[in-house]
Model the fold of this input.
Amino acid sequence: MGWAGFSWALLREQKASTRDTRALLDYLASALPLPVPALKELMHKLFSDHMEMEIELPTELIHRIQMCMSEKHAGGTCILSKSWLHAWYTIPHLRFHKNKLINNTFERYHRHNLPIQTLDIRFDDENKNTARLLKRWIPQVASKSFLKELSLSFNTNIYMDWSTVIDSIFSCENLTRISVTKEERGFSDTFNLRRINTMIKCVSLRVLVLQRVSITEEVFNSLVSTCMLLEKIQLWCCNGFKTLKVKDLPCLMELEIETWKEDLILEIDNVPSLVFFHYWKYIGESALEKPVSFNMHQIVSVRQLHIYNLGKDSIAEFFNMIKSKLIFLEELNVEFVYQSLDITSFVIASTSLKRLTLNVSNNMPNDIQIDAPKLLYFCYESHFIPTLSFPFVTPKKIELNFKLQTLVDLSFFLRMREVLNLSSTFDIYITGSMGDALAVLSNTDYNDLRKRGLFPATNVQKLHIQTFEDVRKHTQCYDYFFLICHPSHFKAKVGAIKDNNNRLFSVLTEKGIMNKNVEVLGDLTKVQLQNPCNGRWEDLTLTSWKTFIDPLSPYSYVDFKLEWFNP
Done:
């Protein structure tokens, strides 16, 4: 619930029964994060002036509010009352992202036997003393029965033996979430799980996140066999194993694996609750012809499937599985290996699919057919435009993402206009060096496109052009897009349209205030600019341009709302 439309009178009437209940704090938490002054004003609104700040909320619920705020604002709540001050000094959720006051804080919690339920540490300096403090305190905290969630992230190349820390973590019986991350900085293995010197006891574990960690097959298999209640496993860029077995986990719902190991073999078996599967595997020259390295028959329960770097020999089997086996699939993201994709067409069929994203690089298929009667959203990412067909139903929303890396000729725009004939609403995103990509186009091409008499498509909601250079060297860059579509919203870099001599600048500032002879965009009836300060839409004039656009960096983006005359 947000602030707008909320009845303060109704809340005051209910305060006698709700002021110390979780329902009231649910409302407070839904409105956060708030700065301290706004929170103080809120408290005065909630409770009468006679009570002022004497209301005593349960400490547990105050902790919940403080956890929804930034550290700076949460610490500032100490000024609200003594109860808020006490709550802040006893909060069971600790975050150390700047490695300050670690020793003092742990000393105080240890001295008063205060519980720590969540511990989030980001170690990002080269201070060995800080590392020694962590080696001292983490095992002590992990030995307590209070700890439920632990997150360790190292952004340092300090070499230390962390075996005692690792042993203490995986012997903690009440932990429900473990996250161990080595930031990408150098090649040293700060976290080494190749050996655990104690019996794994974290039987309550629900979430396991390992990023850039060395772990052997033996240790991982032991973890999986012990933590039968696992609901989510995330392994990103880990090493130390050739075969990864994810088996006999009846509660597992999410599995995310990203690896640079070309020869990785993934075995999935008996995971009946799996609904989300994300798999990214590096494909080098030696692996281009290899099929996917896991048995897709074991993921028939998934509803969301993300598969990246799919090789040529896997495509036929993959699409057949989508059609015949994955009967619950609702969302599919697929990225094809461009070196191996030399097929000219393919068909994607699914009776349950609702969202589909295809990422295809250089050697794209010319024809793509999608037989999905329940499809609501389709996203296509590539360098070129294929022929798209939807025999059953056209999705309500289509997103086109084109990265212009090679020369684009007139056929690019003709194909795009053909795709826009579909009854969907479109969002179009153009990235890359647009001026270079369109360099082969001439005035003859532009006039040819105009003479074809194509009515601009009116079903484009967004046209977002992310250019990497000043496109004034090719002044008709935008004109081609506006000839084939009339978008409701247009977004571009300030540096590409800021100069008074720019054709687009002349057109947008009320259809050519600076140049009355501009003919392009003759159907444009109104232009509004989104104020970058408050987000409001204002009519675009030379005054508003100078006020809001001129101060911006050339690399900033500016949003326009366009209204067209469409007969």
Observations:
- Confidence is low (pLDDT under 50) at residues 1-27, 47-54, 510-520.
- The chain is about 30% helix and 25% strand.
- Residues 402-567 form one domain.
